[in-house]
Amino acid sequence: MTPQDYQQERDVAVAAVREAARLCRAVQAGITPAALEKKDRSPVTIADFGSQALVCRMLQEAFPNDPVIAEEDATALREAQHADWLEQVVRHVQTLRPAARPADVLRWIDHGNAPGYTDRFWTLDPIDGTKGFLRGEQYAIALALLVEGRVVVAALACPNLPALPEAPAERGAVYAAVRGFGAVSLPLDGRGGAVPVRVSTLRDPSQARFCESVESGHSSHSDAAAVAGRLGITARPVRLDSQAKYAVVARGDADIYLRLPTRPGYVEKIWDHAAGTLVVAEAGGVVTDAAGRPLAFHYGKTLRDNRGVVVTNSPLHEAVIEALAAVGVA
């Protein structure tokens, strides 16, 4: 395989998540304190649908035979009580695609309703980190192409993540990867070139920096704390929403990301991990489940053969897996 083999897919994926990010930023900018006080989730709902419509439109146009397994479907938007949602979604899509009609938007969203595994398909999370989105914090648009059960192309847009740690005011980047050819950071606005990203080289577990989900319902904070204690880690974890955590590990700002089950029988969805896993792997890191097994992406929408997700810079991976077994998580 050469870099050119998936160049078109990579370019389309980056363009798609960039366009979706523009819509998401516009919706997020309109969230008011009053809406947050009322726990009004409609802004993230509008952005979710709008993001999926834009990405699926671009994929369908470029690769009409490729199925897409995405998180949303347009059923709710077709219901009379949600006519206002549909109107808002269409209005936001039209700012970027002026010719879009309601029927077009509904069709684009439902292009993401592929029923299950095929030897080539895309998976999309149109907004990963919904609570982070509502808080004005971290979220991601995560898109990946899978071929024969392996992630081969990834584009992970992180609109609120500082592009560089030393420049926190400059926010927004796309992390892109093609299997076998490394991972790069690209400006979200498209102005500027690609910068290679690499994981850290840290080998002393006690000095590790780890990140985890903000929401304890997404990952067991107590189990993560037990692992940290076992490894001698004293630094407090960095908590942020979405697959932005994968980007943080990929570029070396953290060394470990743990997503540990919060209840028996919980099964991860592929769109929550596919893009991030390739970005980290191509940056030199390792991603497995809590038992150290590779993530199995050939069961359709879920990672049903895996339990938990462990992301590290590679030198620390064995120690983390051993710690998980020692505290009874694996």
Explain what this protein looks like in three dimensions:
With 330 residues, this protein is of the alpha+beta class. The protein is 34% helix and 21% strand. The chain has ten helices and twelve strands. The strands form two sheets. It has a seven-stranded mixed sheet with strand order 1-2-3-4-5-6-7. A five-stranded mixed sheet has the order 9-8-10-12-11, with helices on both faces. β4 and β5 form a beta hairpin. α3 crosses α5 and α7 crosses α10. The longest helix is centred in the N-terminal third of the chain and has 23 residues. The chain starts with 6 loop residues before the first helix and ends with a helix. The mean pLDDT is 92.
Radius of gyration using CA atoms only: 19 Å
Task: Outline the low-pLDDT stretches.
Answer: none
Secondary structure class reads alpha+beta
Mean pLDDT: 92
Query: What percentage of residues falls in helices of 4 or more residues?
Result: 25-40%
Count of helical regions: 10
User: What is the 3D form?
Assistant: globular
Topology overview:
Blueprint (H helix, E strand, L loop, with lengths): L6 H23 L3 H5 L4 H21 L5 E3 L12 H12 L7 H9 L9 E9 L1 H6 L4 E8 L2 E15 L2 E12 L4 E5 L7 E2 L13 E3 L8 H11 L6 E2 L4 H7 L5 E4 L14 H9 L3 E3 L20 E4 L4 H10 L4
Parallel strand pairs: 1-2, 8-9, 8-10
Antiparallel strand pairs: 2-3, 3-4, 4-5, 5-6, 6-7, 10-12, 11-12
Give a concise summary.
By secondary structure, the protein is of the alpha+beta class. It is 34% helix and 21% strand.
Provide tags for this entry.
seven-stranded mixed sheet; alpha+beta; five-stranded mixed sheet; globular; 330 residues
